[in-house]
Amino acid sequence: MQSDQVRNIILVGFMASGKSSVSRALFRRCGWPRIDADDEIVSRAGKPIADIFRDSGEDAFRELERSVVSDICGERGRIIAAGGGSFIDDENRQTMLDGGTVFYLSASPETIHRRVTRGNPNAPARPLLGAGNSLERIKELLTQRRPAYSQAHHAVETDGLTPDQVAEAILKICGPNLAQQ
Ligand code: S3P
Q: Is 3 a member of any domain?
């Protein structure tokens, strides 16, 4: 395999930046199987993410996340939608950078807030955003996380784009390096 070939397409970015829906749009276009890291965590833990945070705390969640990231990045020819915090962890970040081509899906705090609440101030709170999924908390976390996200191989701005348009942009960047696996 040539070194510039894409081994896996790995999507990182803040919650609600569109990783899962873009992974589905990519699947429709290139046919590579998709893996959602959060789904894998839920299946291994046997309970929803909010319950893992509530019952065992964030450290236990991150531990499980590291083992899932390490396993799925060992695959080849996969579209991987990673959890929003996974790329912040040094070990995970290196595993992902080594395991494929990493795309940071960026979105403004306002876009993220709109997608998380879907216009409903009583939408279920995300574990790390707290009651009301506050815009201030989103801004604060994004500021903390940007330096890590900026280490992705590529960044794609998603504000105003549909998942299909983001997928097109990613495939254009991959170009002929998206060889059949
Ligand atoms: C998290 C994002 C979530 C999930 C968990 C922690 C984060 O994934 O992994 O709640 O730290 O940003 P999504 O980005 O898929 O919402």
A: no
**SS3 assignment, position 104:** strand
Q: Which of 143, 113, 100, 97 is nearest to 15 (CA)?
A: 113
* Rounded mean pLDDT, 158-178: 94
Condensed to tens digits (0 to 9), the pLDDT of residues 111-120 reads 999 998 887 7
For the CA of 36, the closest atom of ligand 1 is 15
Q: Compute the Cα dihedral for 160, 155, 167, 107 and give only its sign.
A: negative
Number of domains in the chain: 1
pTM of the model: 0.94
Q: In ligand 1, which atom is closest to the CA atom of 53?
A: 10
Q: Are 143 and 52 in contact (CB under 8 A)?
A: no
Ligand 1 site-directed mutation target among 54, 89, 128, most atoms within 8 Å of CB: 128
